[in-house]
Write a structure and sequence with these properties.
Bound molecules: S-adenosylmethionine
Strand order of the largest sheet: 1-4-3-2-5-6-8-7
CATH architecture: 3-Layer(aba) Sandwich
Helix content: 25-40%
CATH class: Alpha Beta
Number of domains: 1
C-alpha cells in the first residue's frame, strides 16, 4: 500500500506526465511492431531490461553508454509510471520506457536479431505451485530471446530463488544459448539486488551468449 501511495504521489506531481511523455512508448496498446531505429532516431546496439522496476540499473547503464540505446520494459502500470518519471528526469536521449508485457515484445513485436543484450533481474518467482503459469520464463520465451538477439548477443539474468535460477538457466541453454563468463552487471545494482544483498540473501546470476555465427532460429 505504501508503495502504491508513493507511486501515486510521484504521478501527481505537476511535471510528472510531461517527463514521462518524453520517454514512454506504446501507452495506447495499439503497437503491433517495435522499430528501435524509429524510436531512437538512429541505428545503435539496443539493450533491453525486462521488468525494469524503478529503473535503478538501466538509468545508470544508459547514462554510462551513450553510444548504445536502451529500452526499459515494465508490465505494471503503477511501476512503469514511476519508471517513466525517473527516466524522464534523467533526460537521456538513448533511453525509452515501454509499458507492456515483455512476452509480447519478445515473442511477437521485435524483429529477428534486433537486440544486442537483454537484462532480466529478479523476475517474479511465483512460488506457489498453482501460480507457476505466471512465470516469465518458459521454453517459448527463451526461444523468443534467442530469435531476437543478434548473433554474439548476451542475456544477463539474476534471481534470489535457487530453484528458479536452475530452471531458467536450463531453459536458456535448451534454447541454444551458451553459458558465458561475464558477470551480470545488474545482479548487484538493481533496486531488488540492493535490497536482497543488504539483507544477506544469496543472489544467483549468470550470463549466456548466442553463438557468434548463429542464425535467428535453431
Ligand atoms: C521483482 S521485480 C524486479 C524489478 C527490477 N528488475 C529489480 O531488480 O529491481 C519484477 C518486475 O518485473 C515486472 N514484470 C513482471 N512480469 C513482467 C512481464 N511479463 N513483462 C514486463 N515486466 C514484468 C514486475 O511488474 C516487477 O516490476
Amino acid at each position: 500500500m505504501a508503495r502504491l501511495r508513493k507511486a501515486a504521489k510521484i504521478w501527481a506531481k505537476p511535471n510528472a506526465r510531461e517527463l514521462a511523455g518524453h520517454v514512454m512508448i506504446a501507452d495506447d496498446g495499439l503497437v503491433f511492431a517495435i522499430n528501435p531505429p524509429a524510436i531512437f532516431g538512429r541505428r545503435a546496439p539496443l539493450e533491453i531490461e525486462i521488468g525494469a522496476g524503478k529503473g535503478e540499473f538501466i538509468i545508470e547503464r544508459a547514462a554510462s553508454r551513450p553510444e548504445q540505446d536502451f529500452l526499459a520494459v515494465e508490465l505494471s502500470a503503477t511501476v512503469s509510471r514511476v519508471l517513466a518519471v525517473r527516466c524522464g528526469r534523467a533526460a537521456l536521449e538513448n533511453l525509452r520506457v515501454a509499458k507492456m508485457d515483455a512476452r509480447a515484445l519478445v515473442n511477437v513485436l521485435l524483429a529477428d536479431a534486433s537486440v544486442a543484450a537483454y537484462h532480466v533481474y529478479f523476475p517474479d518467482p511465483w512460488p506457489k505451485g498453482r501460480h507457476v503459469k505466471h512465470r516469465l520464463f518458459t521454453p517459448q520465451f527463451a526461444s523468443g530471446l534467442y530469435r531476437t538477439l543478434a548473433a554474439g548477443g548476451t542475456i544477463y539474468i539474476a534471481t534470489d530463488v535457487r530453484e528458479y535460477a536452475g530452471e531458467i538457466f536450463a531453459m536458456v541453454e535448451g534454447a541454444g544459448f551458451i553459458r558465458a563468463a561475464e558477470v551480470a552487471p545488474g545482479a548487484r545494482t538493481t533496486g531488488f539486488a540492493r535490497k536482497y544483498l543488504a539483507a544477506g540473501k544469496p543472489v544467483f546470476s549468470a550470463s549466456f551468449r548466442k553463438p557468434a555465427h548463429a542464425t535467428s532460429s535453431r
